[in-house]
Amino acid sequence: QVQLVESGGGLVQAGGSLRLSCAASGRIYSIPTMGWHRQVPGKQRELVASITVRGNTNYAHSVEGRFTISRDNAKSTVYLQMNSLKPEDTGVYYCNANIYQTYSPWDRPDGYWGQGTQVTVSS
For 36-51, what is the mean pLDDT? Predict the structure, then answer.
């Protein structure tokens, strides 16, 4: 009933930029938090950045100052602007959203994941 669709990955040289987008669709009442995680082979998925509905942001130390997360609440979409990319930023980037499908403040929201988009940064 809820889908997260990502776009914007690709291949870029070190120092370049990419912008990822993730749109949520389906039965949605509210989305308290949206974020991006990345995973490389052999390692656990790690948080890259997150943003609340009020615009409060959180970044991994490795991307602070280079990446910017933003969201358009009217479009249920989150973006990740990635600048000054490094080879170590390579990985599959997954969109994540905590979503209420109905008004239920006494419950925790459900977590949803996108299908992932590959980002490859060449040296």
Answer: 96
